[in-house]
Amino acid sequence: MFTEVFQQYSWTVEKQSIYDKNLRDVEIALAKTKRTYEDFKALISPAAVPFLEDMARLSFLETQKRFGKTIQLYAPLYLSNECQNICTYCGFSLDNKIPRKTLTAIELLQEIAALKQMGFQHVLLVTGEAQQTVGMDYFRKVLPLVKRHFAHISMEVQPLDQDDYKELLQLGVNTILVYQETYHAQEYKQHHPKGKKSNFRYRLETPDRIGLAGLYKIGLGVLLGLDDWRTDSAFTALHLQYLEKQYWKTRFSISFPRLRPHAGGLVPKSIISDRELAQLIMAWRLFNNEVDLSMSTRENNHFRNNIIKLGITSISAGSKTNPGGYAVATKSLEQFEIDDKRPVHEFVEIIRQAGYDPVWKDWDSVLLA
Amino acid sequence: MIQVLKIADKTFSSRLFIGTGKFGSTASMEEALLASESELVTVALKRIDTAIRQEDALLNHLQHAHVNLLPNTSGARTAQEALFAAELAREALETNWLKLEIHPDPKYLMPDPIETLTAAEELVKRGFIVLPYCHADPVLCKRLEEVGVAAVMPLGAPIGTNQGLSTLSMLEIIIDQAKVPVVVDAGIGAPSHAAQAMEIGADAVLVNTAIATSAHPKQMAIAFKQAIIAGRLAFEVGLPSRNVNAEASSPLTSFLTFS
Fold it and tell me: Pick from A52, A303, B40, B122: CA 20 to 30 A from residue B81's CA?
């Protein structure tokens, strides 16, 4: 389990070593074709800021070589905003007095129809953590409905046990996303004081359980801003490195959620600017040229229009982050505020104009037989 | 100008096969395909919307009388998954030709030799024309040939790397031993690599990344087309042998003339 690797590293030491990186470290990292964890730390460090243009050029080329001139499209579908956890930064947190909503089968079909109308073939199902109402029983009921309409199903759900993940795979799920939020154990406790999510170790070992269950892809990430984003990203890199060796048949993706304004109103501890986010994305590409890098509609139009050339391989568009948001139109509150509100066809045009082919379908459920 | 290539029941004037992924648009893919004069294109089943086959954007750009489709099972990790994908491909694309690809390792996309051999055997029994993507392993290629594949497709280098024929010495053995056509697949990053494959006697090459990610896919397709003709022609007429040692000034066997 990753815990054994994790325990060999100290947050303070890693953080210090990132901020100690100098120009020479960055130059060495850039000159290599195979880059190490230390190189990754150099590339996300403040010392790499003068090299952003070099990083962009390399990242552009590396991404095209591996993924071609293509950008994959997906849409989130929120099944529920019910949640038994308190997360200080989340709109769905138990202590937020908002209307709660879990989609019924009929409502789900309406949402599916709306997404299919837009052209989506890859759906990301999202829930809070409410084991009683939105647990395995609910998934058993709704996944067959979803599978009939989408080529690729991803899920961002509460951490589950290995057997549950196996069952999700059998039900047609290809990918599971689970974000560590932060690798700083004490900070993690502060932001997750109540509910099952407060168990740091259980969450840290979740990607292991997904890997053991044999899912096709695992999505990793941290909530950028909860703690020092550079150190958290370095720990994510360690995590990825470990998982790639351990579960060699599994693909991986990295997401870059930034802490955004919401009903709870938490102020980020470290703010990551647009320039820094671009630096982080490019550093990831230079560190690992096979990993999927994914972007949501939390980011603004200008940033999204331009970042698609610099390492991103998968992007959502036209998203709603509240259950029923596409068609059922309930008044339930969204999880986070969307910045890019453009309809999907508009964004697809942007992708085309940039010289990329928007890919709706890159999986077939027949492969999960 | 060059000999026609025969694989199973089909003949090909072009020895360039094209992959359809990674292009910036389906229009630029079609333009490159037509310029290349390729007659066999591989297309990933997972990219095709089999439910609305008639409207699928990718397929619509491949509808040309001289272009044959070679569906592939990319995404399959096991023989079992590849079999399901193959059956769906045969039904949806109305061809029994199949590029068998099983790579359980998503990082380097290395083909699984054991699963590939198992699947190939079963697919041949089910009436498929099987072209397996495999390692440049001479024994594996013979084993695949024995179970009845129509051609073998050993890799020149790890896929997408543009490294050229880094498996050269193995490819030479495979070509020497093969009774079925040998198509060098993966790793071909420059027209000179394709020409080299032809010069050593490969029957065809499959190119994707180098054309698709070029700033000018159409022109790059033409460059590959010409390199392949040049390399093949040289192979057919026979390359001059390379003498590594200069001839000794006094021949070592001259004493024999006195006997």
Answer: B40
